[in-house]
């Protein structure tokens, strides 16, 4: 049976960021990814100040921040009345960091470049998880679909929405929000000529937006309450694009339709919006012994605050901090109760933060998208945008902290670091 110090399941944002955090501590992690390569599905994502704080801690921010300009203003158009509200993103700038929208692929590649070439093992599908006593302590046992087994001092499940590791911990499955979303990347080879503003359009049961990534590409999305029956076309990007322009967004401004019509078909995706109930996070088992979860495996949420990837980066730094503190106390990476304690402290620190982000994201979508009566408009335009917006989105200022400085003068960590380098 193969033995590893730390095994991470999933090479998404959470998995790669966690592996980078551990590398900074001198700990080598093995990342198991079921796909044949990096999962670049999802054309773009917004990274708020909290994500940039985490990327600073991981030593990766400098590779991305200069390539994407900050987005400091948004315009929200009410389709039914034509009224336009301006929403400031600049008010959430903090510590020199601002909201930036970037290619998801660029983030994954920036993280992967920090890791030794043999860190990620592709085409490796997890089958089940277990525990095993070993020399007076316990270790995690990972059983793979191909029959292989791996023992590890720690197992971190970053395996997404339908996480096998989360199921093993006893977390209940995510629930359907009652909404779905189509996303894509529009390309204008000659330039789109638009300002770097987040343009949003809202009406009863629908919310759409686009935002430039650079002078030639714009990220767009459309979210609707769940009335979409044509799941067969969900896998056909050309039909999806046509369904958006000819049906779901037909009453939206021509500017938005033009953006969608310029989509790179390979970037168009359709998905149900799922989330984990916040009380399942508050009261559920986020760790058990030397097993825990991070990213969507812990806290899947709707995208209404743009915090899915941001919070995954936070997870990586906080988890690295607690493992690093354990290494400092014990002068080495220790399994058993010491590792279990580090993972438990990580889970407790993340529990309320994750539950709050899930709640804020869901409420943000509910206020902006549900209903069409005067009361709903009042709640959206006055209560949400003028009163609650700053409170809910203020969570994007969060600084998750730094990684500890782990002494490199012990043989175990020096050996690990030589393997990493």
Automatic annotation (TrEMBL):
PANTHER family in the record: FAD/NAD(P)-BINDING OXIDOREDUCTASE FAMILY PROTEIN, OS04G0423100 PROTEIN
Keyword annotations from UniProtKB, A to Z: Monooxygenase, Oxidoreductase
Domain FAD-binding: 5-358
Pfam families: FAD_binding_3 (PF01494)
Family per record: Belongs to the 3-hydroxybenzoate 6-hydroxylase family.
Signal peptide per UniProt: none
InterPro entries (UniProt xref): FAD-bd, FAD/NAD-bd_sf, MOase
MF terms (GO), sorted A to Z: FAD binding; monooxygenase activity
Statement: the UniProt record of this protein carries the keyword Oxidoreductase: yes
The protein's name in its UniProt record: FAD-dependent urate hydroxylase
């Amino acid at each position: 049976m193969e033995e590893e110090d730390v095994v991470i399941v999933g090479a998404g944002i959470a998995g790669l960021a966690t592996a980078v955090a551990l590398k900074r501590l001198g700990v080598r992690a093995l990342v198991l990814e079921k796909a044949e390569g990096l999962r670049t599905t999802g054309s773009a994502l917004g990274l708020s100040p909290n994500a940039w704080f985490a990327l600073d801690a991981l030593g990766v921010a400098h590779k991305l921040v200069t390539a994407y300009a900050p987005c400091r203003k948004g315009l929200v158009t009410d389709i039914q009345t034509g009224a336009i509200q301006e929403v400031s993103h600049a008010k959430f700038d903090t510590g020199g960091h601002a909201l930036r929208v970037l290619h998801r692929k660029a983030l994954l590649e920036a993280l992967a470049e920090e890791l030794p070439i043999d860190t990620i093992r592709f085409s490796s599908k997890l089958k089940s998880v277990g525990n095993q006593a070993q020399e007076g302590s316990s270790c995690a046992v990972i059983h793979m679909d191909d029959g292989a087994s791996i023992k590890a001092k720690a197992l971190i499940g970053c395996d997404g929405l339908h996480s096998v590791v989360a199921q093993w911990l006893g977390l209940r499955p995510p629930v359907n929000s009652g909404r779905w979303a189509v996303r894509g990347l529009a390309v204008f080879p000659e330039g789109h000529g638009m300002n770097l503003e987040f343009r949003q359009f809202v009406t009863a049961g629908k919310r759409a937006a686009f935002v430039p990534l650079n002078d030639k590409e714009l990220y767009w999305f459309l979210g609707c309450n769940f009335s979409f029956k044509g799941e067969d076309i969900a896998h056909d990007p050309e039909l999806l694009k046509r369904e958006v322009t000819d049906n779901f967004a037909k009453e939206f401004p021509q500017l938005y339709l033009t953006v969608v019509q310029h989509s790179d078909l390979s970037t168009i995706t359709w998905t149900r919006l799922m989330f984990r109930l916040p009380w399942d996070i508050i009261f559920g088992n986020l760790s058990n012994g030397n097993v825990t979860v991070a990213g969507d495996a812990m806290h899947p949420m709707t995208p209404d605050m743009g915090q899915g990837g941001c919070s995954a980066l936070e997870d990586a730094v906080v988890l690295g901090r607690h493992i690093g503190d354990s290494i400092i106390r014990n002068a080495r990476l220790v399994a058993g109760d010491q590792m279990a304690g580090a993972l438990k402290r990580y889970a407790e620190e993340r529990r309320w933060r994750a539950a709050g982000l899930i709640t804020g994201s869901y409420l943000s979508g509910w206020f902006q998208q549900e209903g069409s009566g005067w009361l709903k408009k009042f709640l959206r335009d006055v209560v949400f945008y003028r009163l609650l917006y700053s409170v809910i989105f203020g969570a994007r200022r969060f600084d998750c902290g730094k990684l500890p400085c782990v002494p490199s003068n012990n043989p175990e960590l020096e050996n690990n670091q030589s393997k990493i380098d």
